[in-house]
Design goal:
The protein is α/β, with parallel strands linked by helices. Helix content is 29%, strand content 22%. Helix 8 crosses helix 9.
């Protein structure tokens, strides 16, 4: 796929990331100047509100361009990517719903004001209580497997529901370059595996026996998945819907949930691939998907937020080991767990800023950028060529708006950083809004059983003497 398509103004407002990079530089400097980042608060997460709004608009426009007028389309943000209530609220105001995969994620979406009819529940392990709540609220549910469908059967017999209901299938088209995020492999834990013996006919019978099953869902994409494979997964799901409706002699399936999973370019500021590229590929390969006979649901997450978040950490110490400079920062495994444990699959770009938050200049020096955790592998970047980071400088982990600062890993009881959205203040400066307060030490103690200090010392076995 030619990554240049998207820099010409047709597929995105800032395909090459120039404006976004400039906004980020302004925000880092302002965070230092306004005291959000400094010796007492050595790590923050920053969210580019302008970029998020633009990403939401680009998603809507990309599918509007290929979809028949009047087609119902719900773009539901995958809450797991950035589970923060103010983010969900912002996306809701930009016309984006919520795809949730746990009671916690549903609670976040409801707290953000996302209505039930713009919410989709997907999870491979829904409890009876979760299903009962979703059906009572009218939330769309995709059943993951036959046993879950049995549970829904029982609930539908005892009550009526406005919930759109469907089945998640796995077209088993294969995986991408990252095994852990490949959802359409032969042995994936998600959905009904269509190529397993008897599975295809079971799905057809399930719809024939249940006129209230009106949706079909598959999710093929994720980081490391090529667009061609994503398109193939959607094409096979569409073909199955066509077959089911034909064999039943009625248009029972009226909505296709094609999932999300558009990969993100972590190698530069470029936005590639774009939503417009993906939508065009789908329209060329599966034209019937967009002719108005089917409503559409998408579930994008990483691609909406990743490029619009930055984790910035103060360099506490600068040292040398084995002749290589090492910058010891406050961002490591607690905010970049995937990168630290699987750096080959999840590398991050690092930008160097000086003590005043200005982009650092100087010759590139090969160095390590390390985190604060007490194990040697806690590295944001190893052997990276950057302007030399010195004590009091700042290291910024870029493209971290999804699956990073909102997914804290409490190694060494390190505190969750504060997260702030930023936007121009209209007077040439930057305004910040709190998304999440930094975690306090008292909160760490409370989460670690502080209210039950003596519970184990007072526990005694019964005396049977």
């Amino acid at each position: 796929m030619d990554g240049r398509d998207g820099r010409d103004g047709r597929d995105g407002r800032d395909g090459d990331g120039t404006e976004r990079s400039a906004r980020r530089d302004d925000a880092v400097r302002a965070a230092v100047e306004q005291g959000l980042l400094g010796p007492g608060t050595p790590i923050v997460g920053l969210l580019d509100i302008t970029g998020i709004r633009e990403a939401a608009a680009e998603l809507r426009a990309a599918f509007d361009a290929v979809t028949a007028p009047g087609t119902p389309v719900l773009h539901a943000f995958a809450v797991k990517a950035t589970p923060l209530v103010p983010v969900l609220r912002l996306l809701h105001t930009e016309g984006i719903g919520a795809e949730v995969a746990s009671p916690g994620e549903l609670a976040l979406a409801r707290a953000a004001g996302v209505p039930p009819n713009r919410t989709v529940l997907d999870s491979p392990a829904k409890t009876p209580a979760e299903l009962r709540e979703a059906l009572a609220l009218g939330i769309a549910v995709n059943a993951d497997n036959p046993q879950e469908l049995d549970r829904i059967d029982a609930l539908m017999r005892s009550a009526t529901s406005r919930s759109p209901l469907g089945i998640r299938v796995n077209p088993q088209v294969g995986g991408g370059s990252i095994e852990a995020t490949s959802t359409a492999t032969a042995t994936s834990k998600f959905g009904v595996a269509l190529r397993d013996e008897g599975a295809h006919e079971w799905v057809v019978r399930a719809y024939a026996d249940r006129p209230w099953l009106t949706r079909l869902h598959a999710h093929t994409g994720s980081q490391g998945i090529p667009l061609s494979l994503m398109v193939q997964g959607v094409a096979e799901t569409y073909a199955l819907a066509e077959e089911i409706n034909r064999r039943l002699g009625r248009p029972q399936i009226d909505t296709l949930d094609i999932g999300g999973g558009l990969p993100v370019n972590f190698g530069s500021d470029d936005t590639t691939p774009t939503y417009a590229q993906y939508a065009r590929l789908l329209s060329e390969a599966v034209p019937g998907l967009f002719d108005g006979r089917y409503g559409l649901v998408t579930e994008f997450g990483r691609s909406l937020l990743a490029k619009h978040g930055t984790v910035v950490a103060r360099v506490e110490y600068a040292k040398s080991a084995g002749g290589r400079p090492v910058a010891i920062t406050h961002a490591g495994v607690q905010v970049a767990t995937r990168t630290v444990y699987a750096p080959g699959a999840w590398p991050l770009r690092i930008a160097a800023y000086d003590g005043k938050g200005r982009p650092k200049e100087g010759p590139a020096v090969v160095q390590d950028v390390a985190g604060p955790a007490c194990f040697s592998g806690d590295l944001l970047a190893e052997g990276r060529a950057l302007p030399l980071l010195e004590q009091g400088d700042h290291a910024a982990a870029l493209d971290t708006g999804a699956y990073y600062f909102a997914h804290h890993y409490a190694y060494n009881s390190l505190a969750r950083p504060g997260i702030y959205g930023f936007a121009p203040d209209g007077a040439g400066g930057i305004a910040f809004a709190t998304v999440r307060e930094p975690q306090s030490l008292d909160e760490i103690v409370a989460e670690s059983g502080g209210a039950h200090t003596d519970s184990l010392t007072t526990l005694r076995a019964p005396d049977h003497r």
